Amino acid sequence: MLMPKRTKYRKQMKGRNRGKSFKGSSLTFGDIAIKALEHGRIDSRQIESARIALTRHIKRAGKVWIRVFPDKPLTAKPLETRMGKGKGSVEKWVMNIKPGRIIYEMTGIDEATAREALALAQSKLPFKTKIITSESENEIY
What we know:
The protein is of the alpha+beta class. It has helices at 44-57, 111-123; strands at 32-36, 40-43, 63-66, 72-76, 89-97, 102-107, 129-133. It is elongated and about 55 Å long.
């Protein structure tokens, strides 16, 4: 699972997730990609499950880039615990996703197979996404 090796501070506030993504919103490495259409928060488990679905379908042909990294800790208190006594321990690592952010990129495989694989990966993600290619990239979200 993806998580930072070390961080300056152990716990963070959740913060707000507003606006559109300008960083990481264009195809850089591959020919076809998954782009987010709405705000959300992606977990390290979701990133990994989508990656496994993608690579299994293409039978490890081609190359896949993961363009997101979960570096924000989310804390939770244990169930049936009374309020107070400080903030809970880190439960999972997440990344805030804004519309326009590219999640996965692929190259080296024919477009039909790549679309099928990316559709499998899309079903594992907790927000709406679309498949873009280098030709359709300049369309609005």
